[in-house]
Structure formats: structure tokens, C-alpha cells
Amino acid sequence: MVSRAGRSKGCSNCRQRRVKCDENRPICNRCKKRNLTCDGPKDSTWISLNHDRPPLSRSHNPIPAELSFIAFEDDICVSYTRKHLMRGGCVEVACDLVQRVGLSSDVLDPGLSLLRDAILSLSAAFYGNQHRQGAITNRGYKTYGKVLGQLNTHLAQPLLQTTNETIMTAITCMIVEIFVPTGPNNFFKHVQGIEAILAARGPPTSPLGADLSMLGGVRILCIVGAIVQRRPSIWAQEEWKSVPPLCTDEGSLIRHEILLILADCTVLRKGLNHASLYEHTEEDYSQTIVRAREYLDRLNALYFRWEQHNASILGEMASPNFQDPTIANHASATTYMLYNGAYICLLRIVSAYSPSTETLSLQSLQVAAALRIVKCLELKAYEKREGSGESNTIGFVATKVAWETLGGFSSPGGRRLSRAVKAAANGVFAVGAWDEPEELLEPRASLYAAGNIRTAAPLVHEQSVMASSPNYKVFELINIGEKNIVVDTVPFDLPRERDRSMGIPKNSSQISVA
């Protein structure tokens, strides 16, 4: 038992004067000497600290050895996706919108609710795929299937059909098909759907705001999708070509001009369909090759603009992270990658209309351009994944174009590209997001149809179901960790001297892949 004494037992006068009381009874000596009325000493008061406590009982719900991951799984997946997947682009814009209202299901706005589910489906599928967590990946695919169903509902309602939330939901679904694809060419279905929504909505009317930021990354995906599918893109229409770039610095303006050339290429590529080939006359072929050469001349002029801009940056503030002294920084490398990607696309068009005797030389030029893309990916700044969402999107598209040109793992250049991608993007580029053009010639159902916009995509996206389906194609990922790579070195030179008639670098034909 633990106890302690209470307050002093002295009389009130002594305690008030803060002097020691002799505690005589009935009157203490100090009060007696001063003729004061004394109330006498107090009785002892003891305070016991030994209070009774109820016995401790064993909990029926003991604390688990490992805390559940479910409580904060969504936050972890979203944070990981924002950090590693196309940072600064449409995904981050969508995440910002969603996280303003939180990741809970208590979201009143139906557009934000759908966008939140789309972000969660992408994040779970991507995180689970990267960490080989099958349960998380399947949960992401299941949510993705629900999102497609909800997207149908939104597209049937005029007030929700063309909102920013609906467009970003479709963009998020397209990104799912880029990085964790669910089936052959579903990427293209989303591209066509997004263009249908944008066509119904019309180009942005203000040079400011979220619209340009949202469209900045998706524009190149729509254009390249149209090139591969051999159909005109809405970005080739004058009203869409007049949409201003998000930034007005020289590098952004050069990239904008290159994208305008690529948009025009979608009209030329339409002529390569089998049905169109039978309809074309010799005059049509002549006009097509003339226009292709004109685009090459425009691209050639933009190359020299880039070269001057790059040199001015080198003179002002060359980045110490860059090992190659000819390229100034990440933004300059991104512009150069876009240039080479557009250059390859134009060379493919020229090759389709050129005599067979020129095929090998044109292929060599394409390989040289692809190797220049590899060189850009090998720069230190790309290993850190720096830059805007547009630059990350350009990096993905350029990688895909270079991968097809170099022949994948079958060539030294392709294996070199795989190592560069592994370092730059942690191996997350799904180069099988779309198939070769020959497999795209038959008409296919669009995910969305203009006017009465609707989806035709499958609603079941569970990995176990897809793996057992005979129509499911396993996509080849650039992942050096799953391949036995032999280190190869391939020479690299920046183009200097060019043929003015076609804008083709003369020295590039000397570079080949064994």
C-alpha cells in the first residue's frame, strides 16, 4: 500500500502566516502569545493511491503481427503511379482533380467519381504488375471493367459526354492499354473514342486553363494512333491545327510544328490502306510523294531551328548531367527524339511510294534515326525521368517507333534500346500496345462512336480470364531483366550534311544494324 500525508496540520493562523505551528491543543503557543483566536491543529488526513482496478482481460481480437495493407493500399498505388508513370502528364492532372476531393467513394459529382475509379484501376493494375502482386493487379482490372461500363452511361448523357472528367477518364483508360494492356489494339479503340469525344466537344476556345494541359499529352498519342491505323486525325483539321501550344518557348514551338507535320502525315497514311491503293491513280501517287517531300523539307528546316536553339542552350547553361556534349538538356533531347520519330514516319511513307531499288537505303536511314532516339534515351536526364507530361509521352512514342524500326530484341540496336529503356523508365514501356499496320487493315468497332458515343470494349478484364482466352495476345515488354542481353556498341552521329531535295542526312546511310 502506497500512501502519503496530506496538507499541514497546523492551525489556520500559522498556515496563513506560513510559520511552523507547535500544534498544541486547544490553542497553539504562537496564537496564545499574540492573543489570536486559534482554531487548533487539524487532524491528519491520508490520501490512499491504492485504488481498486478491474482485472485485465485477454482481448478477443488480438493485434495482428502484420497490419493490414488494405487500409492504405489505394494511396500507395496512386502515389507510386504518379511517381513512375508519365509524371506531369494527363495522369497527374487527373490525380490532382481526384485528390482534391479524396479517394473515398463519398464523391457527389458523378464525373469525379468515375475519374477516381479510373485512376484507382490504373494505379492498382500498374502497381500490381510492377511488383508482381496478382491480387492487386486483378483488382485493378476488375475496377477497369466497371469503369468502362460506367463510361458507357456517361457517354449516353449529353451533359456528361464531353466534360473534362469524361475525357480524362478515357485518357486514363488509354494509358491502361499502353502500360498494362488487356488485349490486342484496345489502345486504338480508346484513341478513336477520345477523338470522337473531342470532335463532339470542339477545340478549346481559350489559350489558358486546364484544356491545353489535358490535350498536350494526348495529342501526339492520337496523331500516332491515326498514323498507324492509316486514317486522318482530327488534329489534321484546320480548327484543331490552330490550337496554340501550351508553352511558347522555342523548344515548345519546334515540337508544336513537328506535331503539325505529323498530323498532316495522317492524311498521307490513309492512302496506304489496301482499299485506297486500288482507288489511287498515278497522279495521286505523284501528288502524295510530292507532299511527303514537302513535309521532309519542313522537317529539315525545323531540325536546323532545333540545332540553333540547342547550341544557344549549350552556350548558356549546359546541364552537367549530360554526357553527350551535343545535346543541351532533357527538353532539347525530347525535341530531337520527336524530330527523329517524325522523320521515320515520313521515310516509311516515302518508302511505300518509292521503287524497290531505294528500299534498302531508306531502311538504313530509318535505322539511323532510331539509333539517335536510343542515344537520347541513354542520357542521364532520362534516367531520372525529368520533364513535363508531353516530354514523357513523346519519349514513349519515340521508343515505340524506334523499337519497331530496330526489330526488337533480334538486333543489337534493339537490345541497346532495351537497356536504355530499362534505365530511363524502369522497364515500364509496353511496346506491344499496338500491332503492325498490316493487322489493322480490317474495319474494327470503335470504343466510342461520334454522335451517339458508346463503347464496344469487353467489360471483363481479369488477368486469369484473359490469359486463358485464345484471342489474348501476350505483349512483349521491354524488360532487360527477363532477357539475356549481350552488350553491343553502335556508332552514333548527329546529321550534319543533308540532301535538300528530301531532307535526308547523307551520312546517316552509313549506319546499319547487324
Question: What features would you describe in this structure?
Answer:
The protein has helices at residues 12-17, 29-33, 73-84, 90-101, 110-131, 134-155, 158-161, 164-179, 186-201, 210-229, 238-241, 250-270, 274-279, 282-317, 330-352, 359-377, 380-383, 389-406, 412-425, 463-468; strands at 3-5, 46-48, 498-499, 504-505. The protein has 514 residues and is mostly helical. The protein has 2 domains: 10-42, Zn(2)-C6 fungal-type DNA-binding domain (CD2-Gal4); 181-510, no CATH class. The strands form 2 sheets. The chain has a two-stranded antiparallel sheet. A two-stranded antiparallel ribbon has the order 3-4. A hairpin with a 4-residue loop joins strand 3 and strand 4. Helix 10 (210-229) packs parallel to helix 12, helix 14 (282-317) packs antiparallel against helix 15 (330-352) and helix 16 crosses helix 18. The termini are far apart. 42% of the residues are buried.
* Stretches with pLDDT under 50, minimum 5 residues: 1-5, 436-514
What is the general shape?
Answer: elongated
Estimated structural class = mainly alpha
Rg over C-alpha atoms, rounded to the nearest angstrom: 35 Å
Profile the largest sheet.
2 strands, antiparallel
In DSSP terms, counting alpha (H) and pi (I) runs of 4 or more, how many helices? 20
What is the N-to-C order of secondary-structure elements (H for helix, E for strand)?
EHHEHHHHHHHHHHHHHHHHHHEE
**Helical content, roughly?**
55-70%
List the domain count as a whole number. 2
- In spatial order, strands of the major sheet run 1-2
Total beta-strand segments: 4
Task: Determine the mean pLDDT.
Answer: 72
Tell me the strand percentage band.
under 5%
InterPro entries: Fun_TF, Osmoadaptation_assoc, Zn2-C6_fun-type_DNA-bd_sf, Zn2Cys6_DnaBD
Protein name: Zn(2)-C6 fungal-type domain-containing protein
Organism: Paraphaeosphaeria sporulosa
Keywords: Nucleus
